[in-house]
Amino acid sequence: xxxxxxxxxxxxxxxxSSPSAPPCEMLGPxxxxxxxxxxxxxxxxxxxxxxxMVVGQSGLGKSTMVNTxxxxxxxxxxxxxxxxxxxxxxxxxxxxHVIEEKGxxxxxxxxxxxxxxxQINNDxxxxxxxxxxxxxxxxxxNVVPVIARADSLTMEEREAFRRRIQQNLRTHCIDIYPQxxxxxxxxxxxxxxxxxxxxxxxxxxxxxxHLVNGRCVLGRKTKWGIIxxxxxxxxxxxxxxxxxxxxxxxxLKDITHNVHYENYRVVRLNESHLxxxxxxxVNLAPASPGxxxxxxxxxxxxxxxxxxxxxx
Length: 312
Fold this sequence. Notes:
Distance between the termini: 20 Å
Largest sheet: 5 strands, mixed
Helix content: 25-40%
């Protein structure tokens, strides 16, 4: 895919690494490669789970973007002009669907935050509410920011806006995915560096097909022509889809489970140790040196949920 000082961050947490022991010389095959077939069979049976929370002002096309991302009617959007009132409170709303492609099942849960920041002015930069929200969120989940409705900007305006957002993220110590500290080898570093340079992705959502030069394309029709969602000359939606689904989906889940959730678990265990002792109290004091087996280091940060994977 070609395309400071920090606040507490999950980057100091440990992740399972690849085996580093020297290889053992084998006298013949024993069938180790069959493990891959076993994993594939299990995955085909059980499927996968993926949770996304989309955050942004009303009217930015969040529902359409999610539908475009998975080429499904995952979320029902309200057509403009229907006079649907904007929610006045932040009440999370989630929907779950099972999507199947070539025998692979994905249980997708999408959470929306209707009315988030609708009453706050935005002068082409991150608002104070955005900054505080992202600072808290990046310590609990993987954050992938995007520029919505990018077709309303010229190419020059888009790049200038992207650089302003990137500067805001660095200034306020907001750690977005993919985090640099999790680049495990040179190939990861090269790929993720290109992605980080393009984030926030400039995207356009559309869930209707149009005929362009004899072929059907997913896009949005305007009086100037058709904006093709999957055309990199028009927008960067292909980069977002590749990141979330085709190249980094399992990594997103691994970081959520091995880093964010473990951090959350340690915090909750430490908090429970401060509560008054009562019936059913379990001693969670650290083990003595003689009891320690595999050392594990976790960066303590605020809560997360085992199944939460990504956010916008």
